[in-house]
C-alpha cells in the first residue's frame, strides 16, 4: 500500500509538472527562465553550498530565484554535485552584476540538456521559490516545479510542516529571521501611514500580518493583487519572518503573494 501511494504521488507530480511546462526532472518545455539573456558559461569545479557553484575560471555563481530549505541543505548540496559537478553550465539572467559578496546571481542550465538546475532542486523538495525572479514566465516555471515536489511529497514535503498556518502566529514567530511560506485567509486590510497591513486574525495587534509599503501598491495592482481585493481571500505569502506586534512578513515584490483559493 505504501509503495502504491508513493507511485500515485509521483504520477500526480509528473502530470502537474508537465501541465505547467516543466518536466519531472526540471527541464523546461516552454518559455521560462531559459528565455532570459545568456550571461556566460563555464565548467563547475566545486559545489560551495546548497545554492552556490564555483566555475573553472574562479567565478562563484549563486542560484537565483530559490531559497534552500534549512533541513534539506545537505541533500540540496548533494543534488547539486550530482547534477552539475564537472559539467558545463549556461548562466542566464537579467544581467551579470555580482552581489556584494562577489557572486554572480544566475539561473543555471546544464549545457548538454538545457535542464534548469533550480527546477530540479524545487521538484525534489530541497528548496523553495525565492524572491527576485526576473520574469512572470520564469516565476511560473519555478512555482510549477515547487508544486510538483509538494504533490509528490518529495524532500521536505514528506514530513515537515513547510507551509505555516497564518492562524498560528506563535509557530510562525518561532522562525524569526528565516525564510518561510505562510498560508491563510486575509481577515482585513488596513492602511496606517505609509504601510498597508493584510491581517489574518480578528485581533490584528496579535495575529500574523503581511506588511506592504504604499510604494508597492501600484506594482501589486498591476499584477492583479490589489491589497483591498485580497480581503476574505486565501493567499500564500513567502519571505523572511519579522516581529512587530506579532509575526509578520514584509512584501517587497508581487511574486511573494499567490492566491490559492479553497475554503
Automatic annotation (TrEMBL):
Q: Give the source's domain of life in one word.
A: Bacteria
Q: Which Gene3D superfamilies match?
A: 2.40.50.90
The name this protein carries in UniProt is Nuclease (SNase domain protein)
Q: Tell me what organism the protein belongs to.
A: Rhodopseudomonas palustris (strain DX-1)
Taxonomy-wise, where does this protein's organism fall, top ranks first?
A: Bacteria, Pseudomonadati, Pseudomonadota, Alphaproteobacteria, Hyphomicrobiales
Amino acid at each position: 500500500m505504501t509503495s502504491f501511494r508513493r507511485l500515485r504521488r509521483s504520477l500526480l507530480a509528473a502530470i502537474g509538472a508537465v501541465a505547467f511546462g516543466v518536466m519531472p526532472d526540471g527541464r523546461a518545455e516552454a518559455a521560462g527562465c531559459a528565455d532570459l539573456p545568456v550571461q556566460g558559461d563555464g565548467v563547475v569545479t566545486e559545489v560551495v553550498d546548497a545554492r552556490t557553484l564555483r566555475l573553472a575560471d574562479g567565478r562563484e555563481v549563486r542560484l537565483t530565484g530559490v531559497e534552500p530549505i534549512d533541513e534539506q541543505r545537505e541533500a540540496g548540496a548533494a543534488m547539486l554535485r550530482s547534477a552539475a559537478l564537472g559539467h558545463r553550465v549556461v548562466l542566464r539572467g537579467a544581467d551579470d552584476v555580482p552581489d556584494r559578496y562577489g557572486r554572480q546571481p544566475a539561473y543555471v542550465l546544464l549545457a548538454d540538456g538545457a535542464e534548469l538546475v533550480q527546477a530540479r532542486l524545487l521538484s525534489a523538495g530541497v528548496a523553495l521559490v525565492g524572491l527576485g525572479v526576473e520574469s512572470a514566465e520564469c516565476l511560473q516555471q519555478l512555482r510549477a516545479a515547487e508544486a510538483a515536489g509538494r504533490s509528490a511529497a518529495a524532500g521536505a514535503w514528506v514530513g515537515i510542516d513547510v507551509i505555516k498556518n497564518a492562524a498560528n502566529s506563535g509557530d510562525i514567530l518561532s522562525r524569526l529571521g528565516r525564510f518561510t511560506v505562510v498560508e491563510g485567509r486575509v481577515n482585513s486590510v488596513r492602511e496606517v501611514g505609509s504601510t498597508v497591513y493584510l491581517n489574518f486574525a480578528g485581533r490584528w495587534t496579535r495575529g500574523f500580518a503581511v506588511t506592504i509599503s504604499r510604494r508597492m501598491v501600484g506594482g501589486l495592482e498591476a499584477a492583479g493583487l490589489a491589497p483591498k481585493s485580497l480581503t476574505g481571500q486565501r493567499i500564500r505569502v513567502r519571505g523572511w519572518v519579522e516581529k512587530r506586534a506579532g509575526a509578520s512578513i514584509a512584501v517587497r515584490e508581487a511574486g511573494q503573494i499567490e492566491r490559492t483559493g479553497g475554503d
